[in-house]
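Whiteboard transcription, Tuesday session. T.W. wrote the structure tokens on the left side:
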């Protein structure tokens, strides 16, 4: 009976590690993190998906205009510069920003995962409330995935 039950559970839940909703929710739960993934490929995929989610949050935050900081006009190199060079300059700025966002997201996720797990009886939302200043974008992702928002 025990082996039949185990086989039924394995059959029904074999693909659950590959579902982004469940895998990210597991990773951002400080009681579990990456401890219960059975396949390293699934863990790598889940970690990559989490980094992408954190990067989305950071990108959205960087695109919002800040009320305290006035818009700055940066002078172009030449008044007669071509449209192509202006577009190249904008593209270069965007690429630099995208790289720094993904690096920041990666650092937040790797730092979080390298820390010790929380006790099983602890509340994961209390953890994220206490650590929101250390992992701001990751905390936003965790709140969304753990609360179903």
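and on the right, the sequence the group agreed on:
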């Amino acid at each position: 009976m025990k082996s039949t039950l185990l086989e039924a559970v394995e059959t029904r839940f074999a693909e659950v590690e590959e579902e982004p909703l469940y895998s990210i929710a597991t990773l951002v739960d400080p009681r579990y993190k990456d401890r219960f993934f059975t396949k390293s490929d699934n863990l790598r995929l889940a970690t990559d998906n989490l980094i992408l989610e954190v990067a989305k949050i950071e990108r959205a935050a960087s695109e919002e205009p800040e009320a305290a900081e006035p818009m700055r006009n940066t002078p172009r190199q030449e008044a007669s510069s071509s449209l192509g060079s202006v577009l190249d300059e904008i593209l270069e700025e965007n690429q630099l920003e995208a790289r720094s966002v993904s690096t920041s997201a990666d650092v937040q996720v790797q730092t979080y995962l390298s820390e010790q797990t929380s006790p099983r009886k602890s509340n994961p939302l209390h953890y994220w409330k206490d650590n929101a200043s250390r992992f701001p974008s990751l905390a936003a992702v965790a709140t969304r995935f753990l609360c179903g928002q």
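Someone added at the bottom: The longest helix spans residues 83-114.
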